[in-house]
Amino acid sequence: MKEFDFPKAKRHFLERVGYIESGVSDEDVNKAYMAYQKEHPPPLTPSREDSSREAECLICLDVGWVYPLRDDGTVDASRIKPCVCYETRHHDEMEEYKLGQTGIPEARRMYCFESFVPVEGADEAFNAAVLLGQGRASFKLLLIYGFPGNGKTHLAYSAALLRHRTGEKVRFITFAELMSRLRRAMEGLGESTSDVLDEMKQCDFLVLDDLGASKESEWTEGVFEEIVNYRYANELDTFVTTNKDIKSLSEPIISRFRDGTMSKLVRNTAPDYRPKLKRGKV
User: Is the pTM of this model over 0.85?
Assistant: First the structure.
């Protein structure tokens, strides 16, 4: 078997990384190699996944598992368990997955009540959204209506994210997206209509944003009534926003939101102030 030629391999490596040019003397090769080692010291605690870098976890050296110790301090190789770094990483991945299931867009997950810019006319809507988001409201159904761009969706994002952090099953969906999902379901593309409706009916906290953005019909009104009536009957927290005049909503729906014992109807009279603020604030 041919012996490994270390000096030749060293020369080739240094040429490849640009420390020497071909044809230099062996003495220059050695000097360049010493300079390379000085500038690229080996990791103090090499990772078992990649020995050229430092281990991120000093317990398992990035393997993700460890062997427990026996009472006498020796390693018990017959038992294996996840390292704390794996459990932490798995927990973070699960949290990210659950947040994705809420339907809140990733670009809007930084929204909160603290970043809401107070504008005259939005006080009542803000206070009602905070109470519902904190789970301290005396009402279960909240409908905020008013001009486009006056912060209704910002408040809805904030309330939904707050409830998600408490461990509740939250769903955020625009009314147009809900209609689109139901139409796809009726065409046999993926989930069934009952699955979609059950998801909206039974989650702990539901946000239906921008009611009326899609074309109205008896069917769309019927879907909305079915969801609201179920959540009203089961006293499930529900947050609805709309740019429409509430006079255009069906009487059965308005009667639900006018029930002072269970619901709150709030008009946000603030103007459209998105052009006056940096993007992402409203």
Answer: no
